Amino acid sequence: MSDQTTYDDDSVLAAEYALGLLDGPELQLAEGRLAEEPGFAELVHAWEIELAGIADEVEPVAPPPRVLAGLRHDLFGEQDRRWWQRIGLIPSVVGAAAAAVLVLIAVEFGLIDTGSAPVPTYQAELASEDAELVVAAAYLEETGDLVIERRAGGPRPDRALELWLIPEGSAPVSLGVMPEDRIAAVTVPRSLRPQLATGAALAISDEPAGGSPTGAPTGEVLAVGPITAL
Amino acid sequence: MTDRADLENMLARTGLGDRDAFEALYQATSAKLFGVCLRVLKNETEAEDTLQEVYLRIWDAAVRFRPGAASPMSWMIAIARNRAIDKLRARKPATEASTRDDGTDLLAELPDDAPGPEAVAMAGDLRAQVLRCFEELPDDRAQAVRRAYLDGDSYADLARHFGVPLNTMRTWLRRSLLKLRDCLSR
Question: Quick one: CATH architecture of B103-186?
Answer without folding.
Answer: Orthogonal Bundle (1.10)
